[in-house]
Amino acid sequence: MPSILKRLLMLAAVVALLGPVQRLFAGDIITPEEASRRVATSEAILIDVREPEEWTGGVVAGALLLPLSDLRGDRKLWKPVLEANRNTELIIYCRSGNRSAQAIAILEKEKFKATNAGGFPAWKSAGQAVTTPVAKP
User: Fold this and answer.
1) Given a cut of 50, is residue 25 above it in pLDDT?
2) What does pTM read for this prediction?
3) pLDDT tens for each residue of 103-118
4) Could you point out which of 12, 20, 41, 127 has its C-alpha 20 to 30 Å from the C-alpha of 4?
5) DSSP for the chain?
């Protein structure tokens, strides 16, 4: 088998493994439809943990914009949300589901009920309402 063909096959195998590996680190992920249902029935709130520069490409309509860096840091944005939602499920999404999993690990240690809703592209693909956040003056 020519060397280039071997390399292409190896590359294809690596790419095929990336999906399952990503899910391994992200944990169980609920669908955008299920997350939206829970939010619509006030069972949960939806939180986008991407960083502010990522929000310019769109956010899920109705999501609270609370970066993971703030959860790990001084919690200027997170603190009032956590205080007001101690008994509410926190549904978290990011770009791919990995940072969501990191946020969930932090929140679960603090006894919050948190669920991973995966990545923003899945929300767009599912036809969920997406908006562009308004810049704060």
Assistant:
1) no
2) 0.80
3) 999 999 999 999 999 9
4) 20
5) --HHHHHHHHHHHHHHHHHHHHHHHH--B--HHHHHHHHHTTSEEEEE-S-HHHHTT-EETT-EE--HHHHHTT-TTHHHHHHHTTTSEEEEEESSSHHHHHHHHHHHHTT--EEEEEEHHHHHHTT--EE-PPPP-
